[in-house]
Amino acid sequence: MLKATISLAALLAAAPALAADDDEIIVTALGIEQPRDEVGQAVTVIDAETIRTRQSVSVVDLLATTPGVRFNRSGSLGGVTGVSLRGAETTQTLVLIDGVKVNDTSGIGDMYDFGNLLTGNIRRIEILRGSNSIAYGSQAVGGVVNVMTGTPAAGFAGNASVDYGYSDTLNAKADVSGGSGIASGGVGIAYFNTDGISSAANGAEKDGYENIAANAKLKLAFTDTLSLDLRGYYIHADLDTDNGVLDSTADTSKSDQYVGYAGLNLALFDGRLTNRAAVTWFRMDRDYTSAFGPYGYSGTNLRFEYEGVYQPVDQAKLVFGYEHERPDYDFSGFGSTESHRADMDSVYALAIVKPVAGLSLTAGARHDDHSQFGGATTFGANANYTPNAGATNIRMSYGEGFKAPSLYQLYGADVGNAGLRPERSKSYDIGFDQRLDGDRAILSVTAFRRDTKDQINYDYSIGLYGGYNNLDRTRAKGVEAMLALKPVDALTVTAAYSHVDARDRNTDARLPRRAADAVSVSADYVWPFGLSTGATVTMVGDSFNDATNAIRLDGYAVTDVRASFPIRENLEIYGRIDNLTDEKYATVHGYGTYGRSAFGGVRVRF
């Protein structure tokens, strides 16, 4: 039945879909603002209205409703959560928060753990699928997830909400922003606390979770051509965990994430040349308690970035830059300590030209020099052609990716391998977007393929404990389709489907925890008297938990319903029921997932 439903959804993708107005500017493709008609890569935008309407708590639950995304979560909300784009490893997804690279340098593969990234005061998410190391360097093999907080209001504005529900869950958030004279800025805070569920699927003891997040932005526009941007983001998370898949009361996890950005912007030659020089800083501290004793990891990444954009004529633009980053990794516990550092310098250049009306061509190259494994050069190119002023867009892209071995993979006690080579990939895709009926409908379809070599995996045949080695060649290929319809102003329907065939080319086994088929359908309707009702159905096919395909994870279908009603112009009540049918499923073998749960709350805007 699941396969039949997924096939039906794929056929429905032959119908048109909607593009929202604020979907027209993309910043993730090259790290600069671009009209969508100039972007030849596959990018999906989750805007502020969608985030508000869906009422999702976790960012990963929003990502799961977009094409090409697969995720796995180890147990309750807050548990380790990885995101795979187009069948790539979860360690091959580059993540940005307000422009800062936040992949964890203390993690096994520099993976960013989405478990503690809640929607809070996030206002926009862009997901770029496909290898894109030219603009971003290491990690961008599968693609890029770019998470952004709100832009400060021109005058003064604020938002606040609080809701309560299943398992004594409290979720509250607030933000204010404004501007006066040369200054504009905003601050926000979010608090989440729950008794949770058992992380172990067969456990009885609930694992509680607390999350506190804060964000701030300040922009000083000294002149029309000179400005200073300051941004900060902080997350503290405290989670009770289980000993793997065994119920436990002794295991806990605490983490602190610090994100900082300071950037100076200068425009010269009547705006033809813009310059951005920035320092970014990310730090992750993770502390654990277990039956074996306490232990902890700490990772820091300090980066310097310079980016220039030169546009001599309207039909041509050159983007160029230099980056230096210094990741470090520290471990302490079980009577030992480790500390390792690395340095990486990068230069890149891209050209965007529009030789004829409707055609945009982009090509570029990047060279990264790593203090441990040497240099790596990557290339990329893409094209976007519209014969009818944006009603139809034909896209194609080629991108190369590379991922440097993490410090843990290089030097981790007993398992590290200082001779590891970087992972390399080549990614191809072709697709189109078609708008119909005065932008009430748009259809997006993309076919893709990515080949990866020298993939780093854990090899149990090495030494006494196993270790890391460049073992695998992998391939992922498939198709993505996305639609949204707005037949009348009151009704919005969106759907996403993707087929991802991700395999180990040495064994032909399917890569673990990556279902071949997934579909998500959402519908929201605003009734004449103001009530808004909606539902999201997400269906995921079967997958395997392990690389040998010995442990199967059954497919599942989860239905979420929601409603909101305005009491006054700036005040509304809202509520939702997650997993309405109480579906039993797992994204990681042996770990629990939430059953049916209900929540309700109130929102205010001013």
UniProtKB/TrEMBL annotation:
Domain TonB-dependent receptor plug: 37-144
Pfam family membership, one: TonB_dep_Rec_b-barrel
Signal peptide: 1-19
Domain TonB-dependent receptor-like beta-barrel: 166-580
Family: Belongs to the TonB-dependent receptor family.
Name by which UniProt lists this protein: Outer membrane cobalamin receptor protein
PROSITE patterns: TONB_DEPENDENT_REC_3
SUPFAM superfamilies: Porins
GO biological process: cobalamin transport; monoatomic ion transport
Organism the protein comes from: Sphingobium indicum (strain DSM 16413 / CCM 7287 / MTCC 6362 / UT26 / NBRC 101211 / UT26S) (Sphingobium japonicum)
